[in-house]
Specification:
Helix content: 40-55%
Distance between the termini: 96 Å
Radius of gyration: 29 Å
Structural class: alpha+beta
Number of domains: 3
Shape: elongated
Order of helices and strands: HHHEEEEHEEHEEH
């Protein structure tokens, strides 16, 4: 009986020592990580290269810590099972979300539905992806509080599991342009034909540069996706509604320049009709 008690005490002390060593190893790794990240900040390189250096070093330190754990626990398989059993009892519910996030992180890593720097929409949120890790991805919010999909300045932390819970729209993969539409309302007495000619010239001016590049992108993307556009030139749709003429100006635009192009187009429209008595805006 006494021998059994001594064995249990020795076993407990050994396990406690290993837990302490594991914690100390983690602290040392975190200190080294903080130190190297400060060194990276002092480097005279661009933000993108600094970001990549930080991600690579984070992966190296994670592998290094796993190696430390293997060395510390390699001769204590029973202790490892005991420890895992103890931890799993307390975190059974929480682990589910963590596990799904990990699977989502691996999906993002290998399937690449989006990459850092791309604009996406997921779970009703639009933003530019600024970081991706195994548990969550981070976006710089676009739209929501601000009109025309411009940055709000807020950072959104999104769990990776969201890539499985609904549609994910990528603004830049495959086809890097979007169709934007502007609505211009005219009085019923306006000269419709002249207005359409003037407005078409304006939207063509700000979209013609994208057409050839868009055709090349569609040709490349069609090898992987079923994408087919017969017409990439601007078009104006006409509708009579609420006692007025509604013109929908549809044209190709870069996702990040929607508001800029709309501003330029509106300024051009106002200039070209200011001396036209037969075209009246509402």
């Amino acid at each position: 009986m006494w021998l059994w008690i001594q064995e249990q005490i020795i076993h407990s002390n050994t396990m406690i020592n290993k837990i302490v060593y594991s914690i100390i190893s983690l602290i040392i790794i975190l200190i080294l990580k903080q130190y190297t990240q400060k060194l990276i900040k002092t480097m005279g390189e661009g933000q993108e290269r600094k970001y990549k250096h930080r991600k690579v070093l984070s992966g190296i330190y994670a592998v290094l810590y796993l190696l430390c754990l293997l060395i510390i626990w390699q001769k204590s398989s029973t202790s490892i099972l005991t420890l895992l059993g103890f931890l799993s009892a307390g975190f059974t519910i929480a682990i589910r979300d963590v596990f799904v996030n990990l699977i989502g992180g691996l999906y993002i890593l290998f399937a690449k539905p989006f990459k850092v720097g791309e604009r996406i929409e997921v779970a009703g949120q639009i933003g530019d992806v600024i970081d991706v890790n195994l548990l969550h991805f981070t976006m710089l919010e676009v739209g929501n509080r601000i009109m025309q999909e411009q940055s709000t300045g807020r950072i959104l932390h999104m769990p990776n599991m969201l890539v499985f819970s609904g549609p994910l729209a990528n603004y830049e993969t495959g086809f890097k342009y979007i169709w934007n539409e502007m609505t211009v309302k005219l009085d019923l007495t306006s000269d419709l034909e002249q207005a359409k000619v003037l407005f078409y010239e304006i939207i063509e001016k700000y979209s013609s540069d994208y057409i050839e590049e868009a055709k090349k992108q569609i040709e490349t993307a069609s090898k992987q996706y079923l994408i087919c556009y017969n017409n990439l030139t601007p078009i104006i749709y006409t509708e009579i509604k609420d006692g007025a003429i509604w013109l929908s100006l549809r044209y190709l635009c870069e996702p990040r320049k929607v508001r800029v192009t709309e501003n330029l187009i509106w300024e051009e429209i106002l200039k070209c009709i200011q001396d036209k008595d037969n075209i009246k805006l509402l």
